[in-house]
Amino acid sequence: MDLTFDVDRRGEDTAIAISGEIDLQTAPALRDLVDEMLAKGRTSIVLDMTGVTFLDSSGLGALLGIRREVQSAGGTLALTDLQAPVRKILAITRMESAFDIRTATSD
Asked: What is the CATH number of the domain that holds 59?
């Protein structure tokens, strides 16, 4: 399944709404997009995960790499509105605490 993005500025934040599956084939596109945002000086990144239906180990690795890159740029990364399958993967791998996880109302 393809991964689609919708990028929006919300004050200081760059919100990226993601739809689809983050896996071995699609994760590089997400990393490239975040790299592009960082290159433009947009270091406060919010990944809106409402439309993400699946996350595999490659996708998790991409999210961890993105977190590292954003932090290295002096920025912040938040994940919002995780669906049950994605939240389950983070729980199973004990990676929930590695991310700032929010709901849309706390953005």
From this structure: 3.30.750.24
At 14, phi and psi to the nearest 5? -105, 110
Per-residue tokens: 63: 């999210």
Residues 37, 50: Cα–Cα separation, whole Å: 20
- C-alpha–C-alpha distance, residues 94 and 96, integer Å: 6
Q: What pTM did the predictor assign?
A: 0.91
How many domains, the chain?
Answer: 1
Cα separations (Å) of 37 from 70, 87, 92? 10, 25, 30
In tens, the pLDDT along 55-102 reads 999 999 999 999 999 999 999 999 999 999 999 999 999 999 999 999
| Domain hosting residue 59, numbered range | 4-106
Tokens, residue 16: 């990226």
Residue 101 is classified by DSSP as: E
Question: What are the backbone angles phi and psi of residue 44, rounded to the nearest 5°?
Answer: -105, 100
* Angstrom distance (rounded) from CA 45 to CA 92: 25
